[in-house]
Design a protein that fits this description.
Layout (H helix, E strand, L loop, with lengths): L2 E2 L3 E5 L10 E10 L2 E15 L4 E8 L2 H24 L3
Length: 90
């Protein structure tokens, strides 16, 4: 995964031949709050860049608890970045 949110993802270095509109089953492994978060889900491919071997998708079937964990992780990272940014101002 290059980037992710509770609604979707972008990934690089993929090897499959997916096209926009393809429905895919995934096993996702993320770093959430310094600990691994692994979950199964379904997604629809929305964008493919063949030359760079990148794609993006939207989660279509993902457990609500996993979505909540992802959101907590995103908010924690944003808060940490804002706090660090405000502490560097003189």
């Amino acid at each position: 995964m290059k980037d992710w949110s509770r609604r979707g993802f972008s990934a690089g270095a993929y090897t499959a031949e997916h096209y926009p509109g393809d429905k895919i089953n995934l096993i996702v492994e993320l770093d959430a709050d310094g600990e691994p978060l692994v979950f199964d889900c379904e997604a629809v491919v929305v964008w493919v860049e063949r030359d760079r071997k990148e794609l993006a998708g939207v989660f279509t079937n993902i457990d609500r608890r996993v979505q909540e964990k992802i959101m907590r992780t995103i908010f924690a990272r944003q808060a940490a970045a804002q706090q660090q940014g405000s502490s560097t101002h003189i």
